[in-house]
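The aim of this short unit is practical: by the end, you should be able to scan a pair of folded records and say something sensible about each. We start with the first protein, listed as its amino acid sequence and then its structure tokens.
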Amino acid sequence: MTPLRFIDRLKFFLERQLIRGAFFQLMVVGLLIALISLIGGLLVLPLKGGFSGLGEALWWAFLRLTDPGYLGDDQGSWRRVVATLLTISGYVVFMGTLVAIMTRWLISAMTNLERGLTPVSLKHHIAVLGWTSRTLPLITKLLSTTGRMRLFLHRNDTRRLRLVALAEEVSASREHQLRSESGVGRRARQVILRSGDPLQSEALRRVACLDAAAVIIPGSTQATDSLLNADTETIKILLTIAAQAKDQRRPLPYVVAELQDPRRERILHSAYGGDLELVAGDATLSRFMVQTLRHPGLAEIFQEMMILPDGNELYIRFQDDWAGETLASLDSGRPSAIVLGVLEQADSDWVVHMNAPSEQRLREGDGLILMARRFEDSNPVRGQTLEPLHRPPLNEVERPPSRHRRILILGWNHRVPALLQELDSYPGETADITVASFWPVEDRQNMINGYVPEPGRVSCQHVKTDFLMEGEIARLAPERYDTVMLLTSDRMGSNEEADARAMVGYLQLQDHLQQAGTWPQILLELTDPHNEALLLARNSEIFLSPVMLSHLLAQVALRRELRLVYDELFTQGGAEIGFRALPAELLAADTDFRAVAKWVATSGETALGIHRAQPTPEGRHLTLNPDPGEPLNLSAGDQLVVLGREPERH
């Protein structure tokens, strides 16, 4: 082995010191300055009458090295030559190197701070673990909520909302994306970004999970070739939070998590052991789609309740001073809200009673379920009392005749098995489903068999094709079906690509149906709300999946009991939102919504609004929770939007 030269050893030593950080770099530069000063002092020390000793010569050399102003004070040629060399060395070593080291250190320090690696020192904040397609709509919803947020902050003994979002990488582009999001803007300063993987314990400490008032785990869409799906990640995050709480002997925080497969619910509860609310993402979206498939026009109601900033929302109010009042009196004192039912506590669980009789009295500890545009509208208004409604107990409604549907699904994602299971859960209804996708048929069938082992009312056949190819939609003959569903694919590289595929497919479908002259019901799934404006949808209903799930996560984080209400509304066997034909006696020009609500209440149901046959200039058919005293100017073809049980569309 050839021995290393001295110069190589010196270079290696300098390299190991310089890469250890700014402090060691400054030490190396300091040693170099001392060495140059020593050499300069030794060169001028022999001069006669110059210096009394080595110390004075070294000080002379150091001054010339660090300050070029001394250069004109020297006498003699040799001293001036040495002083000039020292001054030049000072420019290079003392000024250039030191400034470069300090500048680089400062930039590095600022970059590390911008990366969001510093743990937050907050309490009673809301921590969002992960940056997915749900995160931005979730933050927007939390920032735009006012009255409900004030109650949440009051319950947690804090005055100001603080959001901490954990992303894999924090950069200027991420912050710009947050500031440019509609509904955030200047309020982005209330959001603190921290970088890290939520699967890592250090990243969870970075967002102070154990000190948070609520922790939200939004779901993510994983490609099929990933061995780590969204539910597995959620379980790992919950285990990590539980382990941290045990090590520090701290209580577990309240967690709201999105769950893709509801069959894993017990596993997640056992893994965590604390306050945990689960929002079943796939199952919830499937319920929304099946409800809309059964009641065309329902997607517009979902859009108002979950997406539109000025739309109506569901609220639950717990006020002990309302105990003893009847639902009729509580409803009549709230002209801008609609009382939907009662949330009663039975033993250690809650029971939802929608369309409760008007004479039922609110008990202490019960929650009043309302629909209103603002949280303030759920409070009684002094001096504004409406005529009380009389709603008898809801009798068993005769089921509508059996219905058989033919459904064409264009595209495939991991939610299709949950969609088939939801369709299979409705008694008396059958469906023949054709799924057209470029996914392998065997993979699709295996996923369905794992989710719906033995479907009883739904038959499914698969076609392997790319419906974007010329002539493929015509070969599928969509005009023969009752409903056509276009789903976004989770095998695309991004949500934008998935939306682009779905939108192009919709345009090709629209062109084919115009030539065929037949329009089935069309359900279109998108991920980006900005893409909705790009489509002039005719006879189609659009689902913005991430936005709807983000709304649910935000609502449940602020008021956890709302999950029970949504489950009641959109699960088979519970109360449903549907449509009723207008009776002749309500077609008068001066009919107001209070008169409509009185007529609907006599059948034990609740009036929510009007679905008009002719759209407004903005393209909307729905008028939800209108002014109770304003004439509606109803016309033939308009329909009532009601909350009932298995209401039939006429």
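Turning to the second protein, read its sequence before its tokens, just as you did above.
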Amino acid sequence: MTRPTEAAVLTVSAAGAVDAEVDAVVVGVHRDGEQLSLGPGAVAVDAALGGRLLEVLARLGANGVAGEVVKVATLGATTAPVVAAVGLGPVEPKPGSPEPHENFRRAAGAAIRALVGTERVGLALVDSDPTLTRAVLEGAALAAYDFVQYKSELPPTYRPPVREIVYLADATGRGEIELQGEVDRVKAVTDAVRLARNWINTPPNDLRPPTFAAQAASAAAEAGLEVEVLDTDALQEGGYGGILAVGLGSAAGPQLVRIAYEPPTSGGEYKHVALIGKGITFDTGGISIKPAQNMQDMKSDMSGAACVIAAMTAIAALRPAVRVTAYVPMAENMPSGSAYRPGDVVTMYGGTKVEVLNTDAEGRMILADAIARAAEDSPDYLVETSTLTGGQIVSLGERISGVMGSTELLERVKDAGGRTGEPMWPMPLPDEVRSGMDSAIADVTQINAGFDRAGHMLQGGSFLSRFVPDGVEWAHIDIAGPSYNTKTPHGYTPKGATGVPLRTLIAIVDDIAAKG
């Protein structure tokens, strides 16, 4: 039995933190040396409490570190019975600290997670800085999430996420109409993140390639987007050798979904962005089978696909002045009598012949076909994202994605990731890595020909680079670690699917729409 959950409702209120009709109010607290200080939006609450808010928080053990949440009963001093003070860290951030927008985004998320079981929460974290509004709303909305669809009964101790998040506009100096525009944008983006997270968290027996393709097509059509689905027969007719090689080891055949967005106004020259996402709905490793430990997390190997498809639904709602087309290959990598083998030579879409040395390097096989297909539509920019290599985690950890490709686009992607709180770091594609994948019998091997794992993340990028046409700005984003949180929740990030790098993809599209 599944148990559906709904997104939190986002609203704006002209009320202030003292008189808002909410069940709890969130304010911020800084740490200045040895002293606590009030964050923006907390002054009115402090006055209502007789100027004793900091004293009470200190007695309760608050120290103002980023993400700490301390709850205080107002005993009738404010309409809300509870004030939740969330730590914002030092007023002047230290080197290595998140930039202010991400700090507030995480703080709002931490507060909303601490208030599970609360029906209606008011946010009074900022005052006159309009640039922080979106970050606070995003963090709060992203944190109001859990995935309990497969629980037959919820335990007595279960407390659902916050149901309504109210942005309190009283001290911001911004009108409700202006703020409603921010709310609408945040809702489009966070609804898309929620859709991606739900797909990624779904058990792999309920999201095999044909089912995933059908659900993707349905979501895209509902958003008013053009959709084309190539099933296994169509892939065979079209010569998609990479997708077929990986997917024919499964009884659930591979698919390729193409989703297209056109700007709302006709005429003019619009840039064209291709988005590509890896859709391995479950990865056993194939004949080169993975160890059993943690294999269950390989349901998340379609995180790139989920984020690309869901991003398209947000793009349809936001209507940027740029053409965007998504190409999403989907397959299940299984060992069977029909699975591809080490030693096979696969003829890819477009004719490149690839010598297979490891069937667990399957993502690059399906992505190469998708990149070659995308190239036929002459994009100006090509951005691909995938849980491609364990080398990304070794190199950059579990929260920073690796990005490779064209120098100029890499910097734009890195900047977009920094602004959205999805950090990325540019990585090189050295000639020696590329030449290490020369095959003695085919055009290229899909891993180092000598099985050298040095620079493993770079090998994946180097392989994909061979399928990108000259003159196309491109970026490959490896999200192996950041896409799926196997540890405890933090900030606005739940355990399980995170939705990285969906917000970066939207930011890149917006940037290209604005600057070309």
